[in-house]
User: What shape does this take?
Amino acid sequence: MVWRTRRLASASVAVAAATALVAGCASGSGGSTSGASGDTLTLWTHNAGNSAELDVVKEIIKEFNGSQSTYKVKLQAFPQSDYNNSVVAAASARKLPCLLDVDGPNVPNWAWGGYLSPIDVSGSEVPLSDQLASTVGRYKDKVYAFGFYDVSLAFFARKSVLNQYGVRVPTMAKPWTKAEFDSALAKLKKGGKFEYPLEMGTGGSGEWWPYAYSPQLQSFGGDLIDRAGYKTASGTLDGKSSVEWATWFRSLVTKGYLSKKSGADPNKDFLGGKSAIQWDGSWNAAKNAEKLGEDLAIIPPVDFGHGPKIGGASWQWAMSSTCSNKAGAQAWLKFSRQTKYFFDYAKATSTIPATDAAAEQVADYQPGGKFNVLVQFARKYAEVRPVTPAYPYISTEFQKAAQDILAGADPKSALGQAAKDIDNNVKTNNYDAG
Assistant: This one.
């Protein structure tokens, strides 16, 4: 899922780390070769360790290859831990495959860096307009990628526990306010049963930090960067609202509501009764429902003053800029855009289908289904991370600042340093000049 993604490494580091992986992976420059049986296009995916999702990719490739004789797609699957480095190294050597997947927040960086070409999937069975906005990767008004699914953050709790402590079970019509949420945590802590009543995955790393916590920052009224031009983080990431968020975030630790570094499996701890409320993703909804049944409460994000927010955008499919057979690559992309494949992804991965038509075919996600509320969260609350080539750097700086704040650093100073470093990165790279 999106939160497991590693930061996009610098080209120099990536080349050294991934040269061996790249060698022989691309079928010649541009990821396309010609033969008697038609043009062969190489496809890269991060799903080597994710058999459920990889099986869907294999099925699409098999059916596309069998549907015509002009093109043949060949799969190359990487472990997710190696994937981004391999893409950067291949881009530097101009040996990218024709087709590749990309984590949604990285689309602007890869497009700006010249890795990707805009795509044209008009005439597909599923129009782009039918998709959740967060599942279409755009940069400078051009479409570079699309995904078959998204995921949603939510709070999970036991209804019986909330009722026991006199805590209201919130709804989308009436989510928790900051004051109500703080009061709930105080009651749960005072009860003595939970050492840390709140679990938010603070032992995680990488993209989990901006994915999980920057929506809360945004609900306070702050943001990672000024989105009016994406030129500066100063005054926004270290502005009054952002500092208020950071001060509150740190208070969760000082008040004993939250561990500054959670265990290796936060969901297991929640299901084991170690925490009362967990901030987690839709990917664990089915497991939670299986364990807790009707006692499971799926709770919307807190409204900290500027509306409930969650992160948006997960893995998406794209075409490389060096592909020597763009017609073939786009033929595969168009072929894949069938409702049955949107359904297959959701069924295999327990993710939220990117279209209503697919969601209506998944019992749990269709209107009235037990997880349809997660579809509603994704539709109503999702905020894409900043659409700028600077995002991978922003992500890293935010993670460092947030971790330092939980460890006791002054919130204003930590955010101020992150904002200054982001501004320097933007200025140095001159991302959107021209």
